[in-house]
Amino acid sequence: MSSIRTELTNTPLGIFLVNQLDQAKRWQERALAEIAQSVQDNEAYQGYLISRYISNPLLINGKKFDLRLYVLITSFKPLRCYYYRQGFCRFCATKYSPDGNNIDDKFMHLTNVAVQKQKKGYNRSHGNKWNITAFRLYMERVYGRGKIDSLFDNIFWMIVQSLKAAQPLMDNDRHCYEMYGYDCLIDANLKPWLLEINASPSLEDSTPTDRIIKTNLLMDTMRLAVYERCPQLLGIKEKSIDGSDMPLGDYEILYLEEVTLKNVVEKKAEENAGRYGPVTGPSKSSKKPRWKNIV
């Protein structure tokens, strides 16, 4: 099964599913005809994106879910990015079934609030959401802390690698910053999948918890962005290179490229020193925080 999405749509309302090749071919014929007509009329046309559907999603109480995570990038060259600890876990309202007969049930397959709130009986007090803290507590209770730490390490690695992939193409304006909304799906094997990256994630609040989290998100984002460009406004005379004086709030450092490169050089020097004699004491690299080891 595959999902098809209109390229210029920034909501999930333009997504539909197909489970047979001839369905995709018929859709392709219609899409090409629409594009040809738009070109002939000198009008803008929509592109489409087709992707494989993850058919073995991890379920909680029988329902499919995904994660909305917020990532702040204050520089692409060097890459400096931060992960916000207070994201969301978004649930479908209908219990999941792999039966192809349910392919048109968007309340079973699409977790986005814009879709789920259309279902009769939608609970506006919690909006079919958990915050990430509640999600982690549940997952650790079921699978153990070690497996969930590994899961989030893989998510962090995926985020950093996606930013590195785009790094050569991004303009690096030192007066700007970006906050992205990452949507991730977890399959039954606890493997994370990147669904999409939202350049302009919705900051509309749909629940009381939404309002609290997104208000704090904006405040922490602005404080950290100001620190990066003008720390004097926060009473900081000079920034530390390792980030020890950062006003992180609920952000945590995900990747600082200049610090990572420095650590690589130091580690290489330690290895070279070890060739010519014993290195006394524990290796400094063994005690480095997780984010410094993502290369």
From TrEMBL:
Compositional bias segments (type: Basic residues): 285-295
Cell cycle as UniProt keyword: no
Compartment(s): Cytoplasm, Cytoskeleton, Cilium basal body
UniProt cross-references to PROSITE patterns, sorted A to Z: TTL (PS51221)
Pfam family, one: TTL
Keyword terms: ATP-binding, Cell projection, Cilium, Cytoplasm, Cytoskeleton, Ligase, Microtubule, Nucleotide-binding
Annotated segments matching region Disordered: 272-295
One GO CC annotation: ciliary basal body
One MF annotation (Gene Ontology) recorded for this entry: ATP binding
Superkingdom of origin: Eukaryota
Keyword Signal: no
Family: Belongs to the tubulin polyglutamylase family.
Protein name per the record: Tubulin--tyrosine ligase-like protein 9
